[in-house]
Amino acid sequence: MKLFLTIFIFIFSLFTSYGQDVNSLVKEADRLEDIPNEVASLEKFKEALKIDPTHIHALAKSSELCSRIGSRENNEGVRDAWFKAALAYANKAITIAPLNDQANVSMAMILGKATLTKSGKEKLKNARLIKKHLEVALKTNPNNYLAWHILGRWNYEIGNVSAIERAGAKIFYGGVPHGSIKNAIMYFEKSRTLMPGFILNYISLANAYHKDGQVNKAITILQTIQSFTVHTEDDAKHKADALKMIKEWQ
To answer: Could you tell me the CA-to-CA distances from 232 to 35, 153, 202, 237 in Å, in that order?
Structure first.
């Protein structure tokens, strides 16, 4: 009986230690992202995944960080390597938890970054798949601000697709779902209500208002973010870009 109890306590302590190690690594990764130090945060998430390869938050955040870090790369080969890693993390997260909102958002993000900003067929290639992942994410968690933001970006980009590109998409991909600037504004505004300090969303919202002819409103939005706290490694540049956009639009 004593032997059985000793073994039970030993196994229990192992599992407790295991859980604490993963949780502490993930907590530290989240803290580093908030500083922000995205590369260091990614390394901590990767350490957590060595212990628990199925940790959804760690997988989704690793994908998201790879997407963001890759987006800043000017070298196409290096950028594509980051995007490939982002897709691998997102794929694993989706495989483990197909209905998880973080997993679906990370997949929508990397698919969007890899194609939506390109022209022609590449922009339209993953349009339906991106929207599908966003719909799953928002059905699971209607308060996922990042999902609403990406849906806004999706509508903005798809709303700008030319008639010629749409005709080509009908041949190659069976057509493209409808997207509009009005919808983009609505979804960006929804994201803003859920995460008022999300600077990139304000840049996207301002662009959408400007595209819609509401120039003064767009400028006011860009002026608003100058007092915001920096949360990501891109935010300082976003704020500087906003000042340039204000000068161009005034």
So the answer is: 8, 18, 14, 10
